[in-house]
């Protein structure tokens, strides 16, 4: 597979090491069904260093035309459907759309590039708008490099593991609501928001894991995704003892997203 063009956000934060640098592996943080997260240390020639997370997408099971056909037409068309949702119908050029549908090698590359590039682009959009998301450093082929949240001793816990109570839980809930407002103002629906895709570090909530995020207005599922996200996270907070009126929040978010 050819590499996607490497891309980097121009206004890089000052903790980031300038080129030339070398990357030293630190260890694997998590290995899930969809992605593996490794931590690396980037060491600059001037001796500066920073920790980064590297997200490696595990290739999808169904990724060749042969495999698609072997698994039956229905699955193949469901997969193409899924592509449209996930990519927010962004393959606007009919040549690109056809290539993806036919699963030509160009199409596969395009899909893979969109898949990594999509998370990068969404996170960049949110970072620029001031949302608390890890800084997106670069993407290339099936790798996405981003700010690591944590320190040398431990990675930031997922909200689900952070055992927050009392004032900390109230603060987290407020930040989740603020973060949702920031996302909808940017026109983005996360699409998989849960206490596993929120990190808690330095008294801050960090939003992560955006490959399935969609454009709120352009994607026909955008509003449904937002609704599901709000119900999910409010349900989780409620079970922890912090009640939020999910439908009222959803209505406020819609108002701010489309104002
Ligand atoms: N930038 C990061 N800093 C610290 N931990 C991270 C970071 N990105 C991901 N993680 C950890 O890895 C887990 C999996 O990453 P995620 O992006 O949610 O991928 P997926 O859920 O698709 O496997 C997260 O829940 C979190 O615990
Ligand atoms: Mg996740």
List the helices and strands and how they pair.
Blueprint: E1 7-8, E2 21-31, E3 35-44, E4 49-57, H1 65-70, H2 73-86, H3 94-102, H4 105-128, E5 136-140, E6 143-147, H5 166-185, E7 188-189, E8 198-201, E9 204-207, E10 214-215, H6 222-239, H7 246-257
Antiparallel strand pairs: 1-5, 2-3, 3-4, 4-6, 5-6, 7-10, 8-9
The structure holds adenosine-5'-diphosphate and magnesium ion.
The site of adenosine-5'-diphosphate has 21 residues, from β2, β3, β4 and β6.
Descriptive overview:
The protein contains seven helices and ten strands. By secondary structure, it is α+β, with helices and mostly antiparallel strands. The protein has a domain at 159-257: Transferase(Phosphotransferase), domain 1, CATH 1.10.510. The strands form three sheets. A six-stranded antiparallel sheet has the order 1-5-6-4-3-2, covered by helices on one side. Strands 7-10 form a two-stranded antiparallel sheet. The chain has a two-stranded antiparallel sheet with strand order 8-9. Strand 2 (21-31) and strand 3 form a beta hairpin. The longest helix has 24 residues, at 105-128. The protein starts with 6 loop residues before the first strand and ends with a helix. The model is unreliable at 1-5 and 67-89 (pLDDT under 50). Residues 29-30, 32, 34-35, 37, 53, 55, 134, 146-150, 155-156, 158, 196-197, 208-209 line the site of adenosine-5'-diphosphate.
